Amino acid sequence: MSFFWFVRHALVAQFTRVPPLDQFVRHMVDAGVGSIGLLTLLIFFAGLSLAVQGYAAFVRFGGQEFLGLFCGIGGIRELYPVMAAVICGARIGANLAASLANMQISEQVEALEVMGIDPMNYLVAPRLWAVSLAMPLLCAYADVVGLAASYLAAVHQLGVNPGNFMAQLRGIVGWEDLAAGVFKGVAFGWLVAIVACYHGYRSAKRDGAEGVGIATNRAIVHSAVLCIVLNMILSAILYV
Amino acid sequence: MSEQASGRPPAIVLDSVSKAFGSHVVLDEVSLTVRHESIMVMLGPSGTGKSVLLRCLVGLLRPDKGRVLVFGEDVARLDPERPRDREELFRIRRRFGMLFQDGALFDDMTVGENVAFPMRMHTSKSEAEIRASVDDKLRRVGLPKAASKFPSELSGGMRKRVAFARAIALEPDIVLCDEPSSGLDPVMSATLDELILELHRTLGMTFVVISHDTAEARKIADTIGLLAKGKLVTYGPTEQVLRSNHPALRQFFERSTDGPIQVL
Fold first, then answer.
1. CA-based nearest residue to B213, from B238, B239, B189, B187
2. Which CATH number fits domain B3-95+172-253: 3.30.70.920, 3.40.50.300, 3.40.50.150, 3.30.1330.50?
3. Which residues in chain B (94-133) have CB-CB distances under 8 A to chain A?
4. I need a labelling partner for B246 at 20 to 30 A (CA). Which of A44, A79, B83, B209 fits?
């Protein structure tokens, strides 16, 4: 099964039928709510680091009032969406790939086929919708957590004027940045889900338990690499 | 009266079906007919293509050559890669129920949800009707109190019985059973045989059973086949096959290592 065959059939399944609601809700909750704890922890520290590093660079020429601008551009436009995609992508992608691979090796996917139920409609489409919709929400949430952390570090630890920080931030970050973040989130979510579903789905009974591990590993690595490359392409299109 | 004379096509016809994986020929020119409302048991040693045969019947595998007619429709000509053929295949498959060798239960669903699943997907029955049907099917397989358990909480034999309940949930025209008695104790195995006979008698279901178990074949089969090294060695009505002196058949029924079937 080639990746392009899989993508074509997955797209047809995703956009020609309403996905099973129970599956969609389950995966949406798992991808979204299930990722919040890990995402909060990591993005909070990333936000703190961004402020500290920015301050260390700007203070050399007395430009610490630009810290809000730096955290806005670096964080909202680049760091937080791509971090959310890689962190949540690893978690969600591993989950999707492992569960689908396990279903393949235990013949559950074949059981669906024999029941006259298209696994693309029942298994793949709801996962694609769920992760594509959960990821932009996670990216937006990462923006909020990361900025809050940067603000805390800048204002309460590094002594940057809060009004100045917010004014710089508002000056550089507009609604178009938030819209771009949502767009990136949808693209990352779909990419993570399609890569994970592909690796899980192409496992076979003969692959055994090792096949589940291989599928999971490939899903994490490939989705992380592809998200970072896609982020660069989207940034070039959206901001240059 | 023959089926052709009665105007009713046979449930399944295999016409010179061949299937190979690379250079390994798994099915070699297999031809057979499964009559409507009959029980056909296909015997054979492990690795001789019995499960491949079953998969060809439902279009999970496409034969390299030959025709697979299910109620007169050729499954082998349908290409699962093509969307229109795929829809056609799904329509035909709804006439089947299948018991997989390891059960293939959905492990994120309870036993009750597993059995209810085909009904939820393919019928407009109310929840109360589905619940009543699930209770009935689970009672038939001897697991009346297992509805709220998850498959991981069950033994291998119990999982197989639940899988059987799921396979008959829609009361399909044809039920395919891949090694139904493996992993079951003799009493439960006999109970499952009785259940197959009862469903056959009361609902007129056609059964295609893949098995190693000669006792099971003697008990339930109308028609017995023996598959060895991809070839259909013998095939016919049970009484005729049991009287046959075919060396492979005698070896299989006598559990002997001497004969044409060599595994080492």
1. B189
2. 3.40.50.300
3. 94, 96, 98, 100-102, 104-108, 117-118, 121-122
4. B209
